[in-house]
């Protein structure tokens, strides 16, 4: 399969842009400030857009951030305790987007495979009616306001400090390892590029190697070849060209320009160390708030649509206001207005006419912040503005935007995705196999009891 390299950068207008150089494929992701809806049993329409959260590149503040945050690269933004947010998507081509709040998938409710909790949760899916889809599809999904807890409902994203036990990550896994957000974007396959003739390149490890690469050779392919020749594990290799670390899913040519005898260097990624003291104290995570009427659009694309090996990953760390000011020397934005003030001003919420899709998770063990602290907030009535624009939009109607960024920098996480991307049909097949295995185990157990 043809591989493509995508740029991932944060623009001056506080939008994360993922785009293919020399192509029209582009995804824009922004993180929206909004009012926190009442935390009770009522179901609310879509809260308003109160502007983008300001985004800051971690590499620009590396000297004042913990190493554990800097290692992920990406971006950070300031939030207040119990402040709400929603995520906005705009795209000119199909993309599948996974959203992790800490180590928990916001659509499927499942912890990442690397966690201890994941050993239990896949089996629990067998007896649940929740959908197996663990990503949103754009264009189609315009917004994500929270955790997909029920059919046509999400629980609002609300920021809380790590360590208090309120985050969804803490409730599902009994620990808070990740915090913040991790966004994993899988683009659609793009056709029309042929393999070119290979050129010679040199790689300096402990020895000097001569390799032959072409326009489709990725950095990951390069690492595999180095492992075969030098017995250096891939996860210990850092490939450098022109003083810049090369990202695994990128093509080597995207760095070297395809020049002959390009000289690259491999340095070892040393293990050890540990969490920097105070790292978790400045970070925040996402808890569940009140319920919002929102449908998760099902994936209607065929399995072959998605370019699984080209997933782009970036992290969004959430800093509380005090630590944000200490790190940046900047004042945090003012707190958003309360729901009461919003209602007093006569401002509306928004209703989009959608049919339930059945795509949601099972968050039965997860409680909202209000449920955990034992409070039930009063419902505040606001006018409702009906949105007639359909959720699914025509990708060809979306003009490509170009907002110059004078400090362009790659913000992808070099560690890659928490889990490999799988189409909904592949996830459903795995679930069927688990059900068969469970049925066989039950029959064996019954037979032994005879």
From TrEMBL:
<dbReference type="InterPro" id="IPR000626">
    <property type="entry name" value="Ubiquitin-like_dom"/>
</dbReference>
<dbReference type="Pfam" id="PF00240">
    <property type="entry name" value="ubiquitin"/>
</dbReference>
<feature type="domain" description="Ubiquitin-like">
    <location>
        <begin position="199"/>
        <end position="273"/>
    </location>
</feature>
<feature type="region of interest" description="Disordered">
    <location>
        <begin position="394"/>
        <end position="414"/>
    </location>
</feature>
<feature type="compositionally biased region" description="Basic and acidic residues">
    <location>
        <begin position="397"/>
        <end position="408"/>
    </location>
</feature>
<protein>
    <submittedName>
        <fullName>Integral membrane protein</fullName>
    </submittedName>
</protein>
<dbReference type="InterPro" id="IPR029071">
    <property type="entry name" value="Ubiquitin-like_domsf"/>
</dbReference>
<dbReference type="InterPro" id="IPR050158">
    <property type="entry name" value="Ubiquitin_ubiquitin-like"/>
</dbReference>
<dbReference type="InterPro" id="IPR019956">
    <property type="entry name" value="Ubiquitin_dom"/>
</dbReference>
């Amino acid at each position: 399969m043809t591989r493509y390299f995508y740029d991932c950068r944060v623009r001056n207008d506080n939008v994360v842009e993922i785009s293919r150089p020399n192509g029209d494929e582009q995804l824009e992701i922004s993180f929206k400030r909004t009012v926190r809806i009442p935390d009770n049993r009522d179901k609310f329409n879509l809260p308003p857009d109160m502007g983008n959260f300001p985004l800051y590149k971690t590499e620009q503040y590396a000297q004042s951030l913990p190493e554990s945050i800097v290692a992920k690269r990406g971006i950070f933004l300031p939030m207040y305790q119990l402040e709400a947010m929603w995520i906005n998507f705009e795209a000119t081509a199909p993309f599948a987007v996974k959203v992790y709040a800490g180590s928990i998938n916001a659509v499927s409710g499942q912890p990442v495979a690397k966690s201890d909790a994941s050993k239990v949760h896949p089996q629990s899916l067998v007896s649940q009616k929740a959908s197996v889809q663990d990503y949103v599809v754009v264009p189609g999904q315009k917004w994500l306001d929270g955790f997909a807890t029920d059919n046509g409902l999400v629980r609002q994203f609300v920021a809380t400090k790590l360590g208090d036990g309120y985050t969804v990550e803490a409730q599902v896994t009994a620990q808070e390892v990740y915090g913040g957000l991790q966004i994993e974007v899988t683009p659609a396959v793009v056709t029309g590029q042929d393999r070119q003739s290979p050129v010679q390149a040199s790689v300096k490890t402990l020895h000097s190697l001569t390799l032959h690469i072409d326009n489709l050779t990725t950095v990951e392919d390069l690492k595999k070849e180095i492992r075969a020749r030098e017995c250096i594990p891939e996860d210990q290799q850092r490939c450098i060209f022109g003083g810049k670390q090369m990202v695994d899913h990128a093509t080597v040519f995207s760095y070297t320009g395809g020049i002959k005898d390009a000289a690259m260097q491999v340095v070892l990624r040393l293990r050890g160390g540990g969490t920097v003291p105070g790292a978790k104290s400045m970070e925040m995570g996402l808890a569940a708030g009140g319920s919002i009427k929102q449908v998760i659009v099902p994936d209607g694309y065929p399995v072959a649509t998605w370019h699984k090996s080209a997933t782009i990953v970036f992290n969004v760390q959430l800093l509380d206001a005090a630590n944000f000011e200490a790190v940046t020397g900047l004042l945090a934005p003012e707190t958003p207005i309360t729901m009461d003030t919003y209602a007093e001003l006569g401002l509306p919420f928004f209703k989009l006419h959608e049919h339930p899709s059945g795509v949601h998770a099972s968050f039965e063990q997860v409680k909202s912040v209000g449920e955990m602290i034992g409070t039930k907030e009063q419902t505040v009535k606001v006018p409702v503005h009906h949105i007639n624009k359909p959720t699914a939009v025509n990708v060809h109607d979306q003009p490509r935007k170009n907002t110059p960024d004078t400090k362009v920098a790659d913000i992808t996480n070099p560690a890659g995705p928490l889990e490999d991307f799988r189409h909904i049909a592949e996830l459903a097949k795995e679930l069927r196999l688990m059900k068969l295995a469970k049925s066989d185990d039950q029959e064996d157990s019954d037979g032994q009891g005879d």
